[in-house]
Amino acid sequence: MATYILLMKLTEQGIKEIKKAPRRIEQATKGIEAMGGKLIGFYTVMGEYDYVAIGEVPSDEVAMTFLLGLGSLGNIRTTTLKAFTKEELAEMVKKLP
């Protein structure tokens, strides 16, 4: 499965309804699981972003579908990073000329 790191910022709507955040996070977790994925970690953070999540999903298409659905709710905006393990990096480097 592909690994993604999500950097999230609350929108005006999201901060106004912050008391609903725990329920929204639980719903998102169930949503990613229903799509064949897994939430590895979720953190509320201080600084430029409000949340950071690490998840695994079967494909880029599944990731994009999940992110479109998440964004369409209007509570957060995401920046998504596709992540590679150190083992995957080692395999990529081996292929360099």
Give a verbal description of the structure.
The protein is of the alpha+beta class. The chain has a single domain (2-94), classed as 2-Layer Sandwich (Alpha-Beta Plaits), CATH 3.30.70.920. The chain has helices at residues 12-16, 21-34, 60-72, 86-94, and strands spanning 2-10, 38-44, 51-57, 76-83. The longest helix is centred in the first third of the chain and has 14 residues, at 21-34. The chain has a four-stranded antiparallel beta sheet with strand order 2-3-1-4. The mean pLDDT is 97. 42% of the residues lie in helices and 32% in strands. A hairpin with a 6-residue loop joins strand 2 and strand 3. It starts with a strand and ends with a helix. The radius of gyration is 15 Å and the shape is elongated. The chain has four helices and four strands; from the N terminus they run βααββαβα.
The dominant shape is elongated
Fraction of residues in H or I helices = 40-55%
Mean pLDDT: 97
Under the CATH scheme, which architecture would be assigned? Answer: 2-Layer Sandwich
Characterize the main sheet.
Answer: 4 strands, antiparallel
What structural class should be given to the helix and strand makeup?
alpha+beta
Within CATH, the superfamily carries the name Lrp/AsnC effector binding domain/regulation of amino acid metabolism (RAM) domain
Q: Over the alpha carbons, how many angstroms does the gyration radius reach?
A: 15 Å
Number of helices: 4
DSSP E strands, number: 4
* Strand order, sheet with most strands: 2-3-1-4
**What is the fold named in CATH at topology level?**
Alpha-Beta Plaits
